[in-house]
Automatic annotation (TrEMBL):
Ranges in a coiled coil: none
Domain of life: Eukaryota
Homology family: Belongs to the type-B carboxylesterase/lipase family.
Keywords: Glycoprotein
Organism of this sequence: Aromia moschata
Pfam families to which the protein is assigned, alphabetical: COesterase (PF00135)
Classification via SUPFAM superfamilies: alpha/beta-Hydrolases
Protein name: Carboxylesterase type B domain-containing protein
Domain Carboxylesterase type B: 4-251
């Protein structure tokens, strides 16, 4: 018989740049037990197994995204048998998982399978989020075993299916796998166009969204990090604003037109020294470290860490905000913590600064002008520079050809 209670359901897509990762790292027990939600963690094909393509119907690609979609279909159909509400499903993803959410928002089949989303530290509006299949041709040719015939594609696929998966993954280790623009490759297409184009046309899920990024999102990518002593470097700030913050701002600008959108910047610095590991003292919250609070890691058993009570309290607050949004589409509604999180909109593009105080931003701590530069001015400058180089290379006069 069907359970009486209908809980909100969170479907989790893990990070890992579409190459690595596993849902088993993130134990949902604390989130479920303390905040009364259902959590479904999804394993999906990655790397060569998830995004290999023959550039035709034999292997069109995007299998990792299809796995996610299949999981969403299963949850929509069956979650009621586990006490969940099929009409209150929230996708939650981080990094590549958050990017995946943006792709599902533009897919006609996926759109009806979820009701809201939490997209953390992911950029799905970048032109580089998906590639053309031909961009992989050279790499794919290099990983095909010598005994496999390359044509016809059906024979190649049959041969690859009889090849050890571990061998293929090893061969493809240095390839930067990502979603594909697969229009015309098979009977059905998962991603016909870049998400940014779909968003500009208004062809995306009009759903409530909670999205944001960490204060030092890309800091661990800096070469020679051990020699850096503070966050005053213009290079560090550019990495944050260009690659993450500006994209989050743009994503929120689209979604807020039809539904409530909530944006955050994560500033809480771990108080437990053992959990910080070898991080320099000046670093606050790099990529992934906010998940410690989202998943209630300070409450996990057998971590071998004596967690500071402050980290547990912060984790309680963050889990409450996230699960309240999953339940009601508003992180402040009926929340046990008296935090007023104003929705993001054109007139008031508010961003919640998640630190000791949990307050909305002011003009002193969020660089809106930088966001506008990276989202609107920089792409035009880049386009003009490319055109300049093309005209110069062809020997044409810039004066005669410039618009």
């Amino acid at each position: 018989s069907r359970p009486q209670s209908e809980f909100a359901t969170i479907i989790w897509f893990h990070p890992g740049d579409f190459v690595t990762g596993t849902p088993t790292i993130w134990n949902p027990h604390t989130l479920v037990y303390r905040h009364r939600v259902i959590v479904v963690t999804v394993a999906w094909r990655l790397n060569v197994l998830g995004f290999f393509t023959t550039m035709d119907s034999a292997a069109p690609g995007n299998y990792g995204l299809m796995d996610q979609q299949a999981a969403m279909l299963w949850v929509k159909k069956n979650i009621g048998l586990f006490g969940g509400n099929p009409d209150n499903i929230c996708l939650m993803g981080y990094g590549a998982g958050a990017t995946s959410i943006g792709l599902h928002m533009t897919n006609p089949i996926s759109r009806g399978l979820f009701n809201k989303a939490i997209a953390m530290s992911g950029n799905y509006l970048s032109p580089s989020v998906a590639r053309l299949p031909k961009d992989y041709k050279e790499h794919i040719d290099a990983i095909i075993p010598e005994h496999c015939e390359k044509t016809p594609s059906s024979k190649l696929v049959e041969c690859l299916r009889n090849t050890k998966a571990s061998w293929l993954v090893d061969q493809a280790a240095n390839i930067d796998w990502s979603p594909l623009l697969d229009a015309g490759l098979g009977n059905t297409s998962f991603l016909q166009d870049l998400p940014i184009n779909s968003f500009e046309r208004g062809e995306y899920s009009q759903i409530p969204l909670l999205t944001g990024y960490t204060h030092m999102e890309k800091v661990l990518e800096i070469d020679g990090l051990s020699n850096v002593t503070d966050f005053s470097s213009a290079k560090l700030r550019e990495l944050l604003e260009k690659k993450v913050a500006a994209a989050t701002y743009l994503q929120a600008s689209y979604l807020t037109k039809e539904n409530s959108t909530y944006v955050y910047r994560f500033h809480i610095k771990l108080s437990t020294k053992a959990a910080r590991g070898i991080l320099p003292e000046w670093i606050t919250v790099p990529h992934l470290y906010d998940l410690i609070y989202v998943w209630g890691v300070p409450y996990w058993e057998n971590t071998g860490i004596d967690w500071d009570i402050r980290d547990r309290k912060f984790s309680d607050t963050v889990m409450s905000l996230w699960t309240t949004f999953a339940k009601s589409s508003d992180p402040s509604e009926n929340n046990i913590y008296p935090i007023e999180w104003a929705p993001f909109n054109e007139d008031n593009p508010g961003i919640m600064i998640i630190d000791d105080t949990f307050n909305m931003n002011n003009s002193n701590n969020v660089s809106y002008k930088a966001f506008d530069f990276w989202n609107h001015y920089y792409p035009k400058v880049k386009e003009m520079a490319v055109k300049c180089c093309e005209l110069t290379a062809s020997g044409n006069s810039l004066r005669n050809n410039w618009p």
